[in-house]
Amino acid sequence: MSTILVVEDGITDREAINRYLKQNGFNVINAESGEEALEKLNSNKPDAIVIDVILPGQSGFELCRELKTDPKTKNIPVIICSSKNTDVDKTWGNMLGADAYITKPVDETLLLQTVRQSIAA
Questions:
Q1: Which of 19, 58, 88, 107 is the S-S candidate for 34 at Cβ 3.0 to 4.6 Å?
Q2: Contact (CB, 8 A) for 17 and 8
Q3: 6 vs 79: CA distance, rounded Å
Q4: Is residue 72 a contact partner of residue 49, using CB atoms and an 8 Å limit?
Q5: Edge-to-edge strand order for the sheet containing 27-31?
Q6: pLDDT (tens digit, 9 = 90+) per residue, 22-49?
């Protein structure tokens, strides 16, 4: 069973993402900030990470860049899931190393397809 770290501070979005993943057989670990995500990564090695862009403290973009430059986490797929859906945001996420970029409101089919493709890659 694959484990997904979900970094999302919004309760509604976090609960939806959790429900979609758990109903489809994934284990889920939650963090509400980039700092909390980094702490959880010290004791857990998820198969993929879903990150919101707008987080308290460190942004999801900053967290993505940090994860992709750290030898311990650079090979974990990062999926940005954000309400920021301009081409500039998507390009920025790609430049920082995100493996995929999906937008909110979260579409269950797209989330699951993206997670599965990221893990299989």
A1: 58
A2: yes
A3: 10
A4: no
A5: 27-31, 3-7, 48-51, 78-82, 100-103
A6: 999 999 999 999 999 999 999 999 999 9
